[in-house]
Amino acid sequence: MIAPSLLSGALLLLLLLSACTQSDWPHLDDSPEARVARWAVEQGAELSGFRIGRACPTCLRGVIATADLPEGHVIQKIPMTLALRLGDTTPAIPAEHARLLLEGMHNDPAFNASWHLFWATQPTPDELFTPELYTDQHLEMLQTPELEELARDRRDSTVAVYSGEYSYQAYSPFAEVVPPDRVSLETFKYMSSLLNSRMFGLHFTGLAEDELVGYLVPVADFFNHDDDPNASRSNDDEHMSVFAIKPIKAGEAITFNYFQGVIHRPDMSMFFFGFVAEREEPLLAAVDLPTFDPDNVFAATPPDDSMYDDPKCEFVKCEFVTWQEYDRLAARLKAAPPSDMQDEAWLENASVADGRLRILLQYRIARKRALRNTMNKIAAHLGGHGQHPNRDRGKAAAASESDLGGIEAIEARLARWLISNGALLSGFSIGRECPTCLRGVVATKDLAPNEVIMKIPFSAMIRFPADQTGYPAELARSMLLRMHTDPAFNATFSLFWQAHPAADEAFTPELYTDEQLDNLQTPELEAMARRQRDTTEEVFYGSYGEPPYAPMIEVLPAVTVDTFKHAAAMLNSRAFGFNCDETETEVCTHLVPLLDLLNHSDDPNAERTGDSKLVTLAATRHIRRGEAITHNYFEGVIHRPDMSMFYFGFVAEREVPLLPAVDLPDFNEDDPFAATPPDDSRYDDPDGEFVTAQEHARLSARLAAAATTLEEDEALLAGGTVKDWRDNTILRYRIARKRALTLAIDKIAAVLGLGVERAVDADVEHEL
Question: Fewest beta carbons less than 10 Å away: which of 59, 271, 407, 544?
Answer without folding.
Answer: 59
